[in-house]
Amino acid sequence: MAEAEFTSASFYQALRDKRLIGTRCQECQNVYVPPRQVCPHCHSRDVEWVKVKGEGILVAYTTIAVGTSPMVAQGYDRNRHYCCGIVALAEGPRLCALIIGADAQKPASIKIGTAVSVAFPAETDKRAVLAFRIRQSD
Amino acid sequence: MVRRMNRPVAIVGVGISKFGAFKEKLGRELFAEAFTEMLGSVDRGIEARDIEALYVGSAAPLSFELQAHLAPIIADQVGLITKPAIRVESACASGGLALREGIIGVASELYDIVLVGGVEKMTNLPTTEVTDVLAAFSDSAYESRVGITFPGAYALLATAYRHRYGLTEEQLMAVAIKNHQNGALNPKAQFNCSIRDILIRRMANMMEKGQQTPNWASEMDFLKDREANPIIAWPLRLFDCSPITDGAACLLLVAGHLAKSFTDTPIYVIGSGQASDYSLSGRDDLTTLASAREAARQAYDMAGVHAEDIQMAEVHDCFTIAEILATEDLGFFEPGEGGRAVEQGITALQGTMPINPSGGLKAKGHPVGASGIAQAVEVWQQMRGEAGARQINRDVHLALTHNVGAHGASCLVHIYERR
Fold first, then answer.
1. Which of B27, B117, B254, B275 could serve as B121's disulfide partner, Cβ 3.0–4.6 Å?
2. What's the CA gap between A86 and A110, in Å, rounded?
3. Cβ atoms B86, B79 nearer than 8 A
4. Is residue B53 within 8 Å of residue B117, measured between CB atoms?
């Protein structure tokens, strides 16, 4: 991983390889997921790769009826909604993600604070998106 | 540090096109409509040749009209070639940014007389493509990519807000009902009708077709009907969202010492603030827009006034939740109190703190690049007692506009005074 550039392409390639990665600033120790070449907090360029566990909680969510065109192409519409959310990782950073395993037709049944785990895309998925799955055991 | 303008800047003329869906009109043609009205609004007249520069806000003309390099085309349309013509972009706050850049141009003494405007021609594209363009105002690599639409981004803010403060759907609906009531009194509004007018028309159409008519006893009943008011991005439904709109607006800005040569009643812009913020995932608090709080702080400090001094405001109600956030971020209400304030009628046209007397983005329409300028047009009309049927019945000499880019990644706040 050390040789990979701190880019979105590296982030999504790692996701296809079943790893959720970001950067840790060597000056202030702040962790960013996705990766950042320059630390937004202290402006240091001394950053290194860090792998995070991919576990967190839902801090906001919505179920979408009128979707983006890639989601519409997957068959989502006014009668079949999908769920998106903001996930706070155990390590701190937050991420926007597609939320799997929630009943998007019953939005009031979805709860803020619910535990979620990263759901990796297929190795061949050229347009991989970041997704988290509701953790059933919780 | 409090920043001040190098010299006063005043608005001495305004114009606004009809807002709506105009398949046969180009954005530049809508701008010319606004320009023509502006020329007629200057009490002692203006020679267009005396305008020294044009600042135009437009968010995505390349996507909506396949038109890049818009500013010279607008300048040509209104006869301003060879003057400098500058297009600025800050998503849905492009109009507010054009105003700020124009203020900087005049306050810096680079120019004495400038035209600032905004325009967007959105209705040529089908809804799915408009959804994609608006979603691209958020982070394409990490937000819209996962399927978050523009209503979806505000719905995320709404669920976080609801979780903390207990927002009800009736509070969101109260924003829509109020703004449509105001829009019904605004002849330039895309929805020049109340929600009651809409439900009566729907029922009449259904009866005409021999269909069974729903039992809508009130506007709330209608808004709670999932067929009439479907979910777009929960908890936001169709009537929580501003429409897709074509429209333009413009203002004539001049150096303060020239203002009285154009009109006895100039409106001075005494405060301007602008701020940026992280994408949604970078924010610790999703129940407020930090960019709005920072832009407001700058504008209040520059103007030397406080939230409680403001007598009316046009705020960025691209979604009903956005108006509730705005009234808190601007300091009119405590966090968590914005929803109750709407329900209590405080923000109604003749309430103690009128918000969006124009009908707001919700009812007036939201041609994204034009909205920030259209807000200033309303302020001008209200402060001069020229707002017709929707005139606030108290004297307004201090007002504010709040124009948000995307989900709050940018925000502009301006404060106006009639002396």
1. B27
2. 13
3. no
4. no
Are A19 and A70 in the same domain?
A: no
Query: Could A65 and B131 be called an inter-chain contact, meaning their C-beta atoms sit closer than 8 Å?
Result: no
**pLDDT recorded at residue A122:** 93
Q: Tell me what pLDDT residue B215 has.
A: 85
Q: Can you list the pairs that B128-133 forms with residues at least 24 positions away whose Cβ atoms lie under 8 Å?
A: B128/A69, B128/A72, B129/A69, B130/B64, B130/B244, B131/A66, B131/A67, B131/A68, B131/A69, B132/A68, B132/A69, B133/B60, B133/B63, B133/B64
Interface A-B: count of C-beta contacts within 8 A = 114
Under DSSP, the state recorded for B138 is: S
Asked if B253 is an interface residue toward chain A (Cβ–Cβ < 8 A), one would say: no
Q: Are A65 and A44 within one domain?
A: no
Which domain range does residue A21 map to?
8-52
> What is residue B90's DSSP assignment?
B
H helices present in B27-168, as ranges: 27-41, 61-65, 70-77, 94-107, 127-135, 150-165
CA B91 to chain A, closest CA, distance in angstroms equals: 18
- Cβ contact B155–A62 (<8 Å): yes
Tokens standing for residue B3: 């920043």
With CB atoms and an 8 Å threshold, state whether A86 touches B279. Answer: no
DSSP letter for each residue of B338-377: HHHHHHTTTTSTTSSS-B-TT-HHHHH---HHHHHHHHHH
What are the residue ranges in chain B where pLDDT is below 70? none
Both A69 and A95 in one domain: the answer is yes
pTM: 0.97
Q: Report the distance separating Cα B259 and Cα B112, nearest Å.
A: 10
- How far, CA to CA in Å, does B326 sit from each of A12, A132, B45, B300, B323? 36, 31, 36, 15, 5
pLDDT at res. A138? 47
Same domain for A87 and A43: no
Asked if B172 and B344 touch (Cβ cutoff 8 Å), the reply is no
Of A34, A65, A130, the CB nearest to B231: A65
**Structural domain count of chain A:** 2
Q: How far is A87 from chain B (nearest CA, A)?
A: 8
Do the beta carbons of residue A37 and residue A108 sit within 8 Å?
no
Measured between alpha carbons, how far is B347 from B391 in angstroms, rounded to an integer?
A: 14
Give residue-wise pLDDT tens across range A103-135.
999 999 999 999 999 999 999 998 899 999 999
Asked whether the predicted pLDDT for residue A89 surpasses 70, the reply is: yes
Is residue A106, in this structure, part of any structural domain at all? yes
Cβ neighbours of B148 in A, within 8 Å: 62, 64, 68, 84, 96
Chain A residues with a Cβ under 8 Å from any Cβ in chain B? 8, 34, 40, 59-72, 76, 78, 81-82, 84-86, 93-98, 107, 112, 129-131
Give the model confidence (pLDDT) of B154-175 as tens digits: 999 999 999 999 999 999 999 9
Whether the ipTM is more than 0.95: the answer is yes
Residue A78 covered by a domain: yes
| Chain B residues with beta carbon closer than 8 angstroms to that of A66 | 127, 131, 149, 151, 232-233
Q: Distance between CA atoms of B7 and B22, rounded to whole angstroms?
A: 40
Take residue B255 and report the two structure tokens written for it. 């150096």
